[in-house]
Specification:
Blueprint: H1 3-15, H2 19-24, E1 26-33, E2 39-41, H3 43-56, E3 57-68, E4 74-85, E5 98-111, E6 114-122, H4 124-130
Parallel strand pairs: 1-6
Antiparallel strand pairs: 1-2, 3-4, 4-5, 5-6
């Protein structure tokens, strides 16, 4: 698979709610940087994050644009998150199934045909405003 195909398959798995398929595309030591959060390392930490997200949010990504450097080892994706805040996340406002639309992006490093780093960025203040904080 090309880098573009790997990233697209990762997002297809995300949109299908298939954490197993997402995890299968990651290196064992994947570094996962969450917007304004701490780095998580490893597939198990990634799975725990996904399980937490599934409890608090229902999201689909649209308008995905994938950009890849000449080596194929680094990539970025820009997209729009269509979501619902379905369960109160610790330290955040109370969830009441609030709808949000949020521009976001992710940076990727790839190694040996797998994703070795995921760093997602979005405007937290925009999200907070949309959910009524």
């Amino acid at each position: 698979m090309t880098t573009t195909e790997i990233i697209q398959a990762y997002y297809d798995a995300f949109n299908n709610g298939d954490t197993d398929a997402m995890a299968a595309m990651l290196t064992d030591d994947v570094a996962h940087d969450v917007n304004q959060g701490t780095r998580r390392v490893g597939i198990e930490a990634f799975r725990e994050f996904c399980a937490h997200m599934d409890k608090c949010y229902a999201e689909k990504l649209i308008d995905i644009v994938i950009m890849v450097d000449a080596t194929g080892n680094r990539a970025a994706a820009e997209f729009t998150v269509l979501g619902f805040y379905t369960g109160t996340d610790e330290g955040l406002p109370e969830a009441n199934n609030q709808k949000y639309t949020l521009p976001a992006g992710t940076f990727f490093d790839l190694r040996d045909g797998k994703i070795a780093r995921i760093a997602t960025c979005y405007n937290l203040q925009d999200w907070l405003k949309q959910v009524g904080a």
